Amino acid sequence: MKSGTWTNSEKNEFQRIIDDEKEVEETKKILTDKIEKLMKRGESLEDLESHVVDIEKEADIFKENNKKLKKEEQKAESREYSLILSWIGTGLGITYGFFAGYSWPMMLLLGAACGLSFYTITRIFTGINQTIDNTVHMMSAYFPSSLFSSQENKPKKTYLPGFELKDKLKEKLSSTVSALTPKTNRDKPTLKS
To answer: Any idea where the domains of the chain sit in the sequence?
Structure first.
């Protein structure tokens, strides 16, 4: 071999070595890029996992607050009905006292006694119904059957018997008002429930 001169086979072998080194360098770059991307993806997955955990905690808090709000709403509604019935009882007591010929102080006392008894009775029945509903709800978590799930799917508006007729009465009142209005006013809106 002469110095400075290369044969074709030596040139080809040298070129192949240079090409192989370039290919190795390109592979190294690709691998380091992919490793960096995987590390970034791993970090983003960890971020997503932490976000999912945070969202789950917020969902649990929301669920608890929703349960508390529903209970408070049901308590307020039952108090409202109890007060309405106590006023009805008071009115009935005073009316009875009036027709029985009692004096005014006695009528007021009788009205107060009837109102208090109506209020107490409705609160007792409301408490019993709430206990039954809570028991059914608790049992439906342990025994998921159609018996319990059908009661869960029904919307509960009140705990007092007879007050589910409220919506029917509103519909009847609305239809009566629309029937009594003159034909020229039929296009105007009627009572809404």
So the answer is: 12-161, 162-193
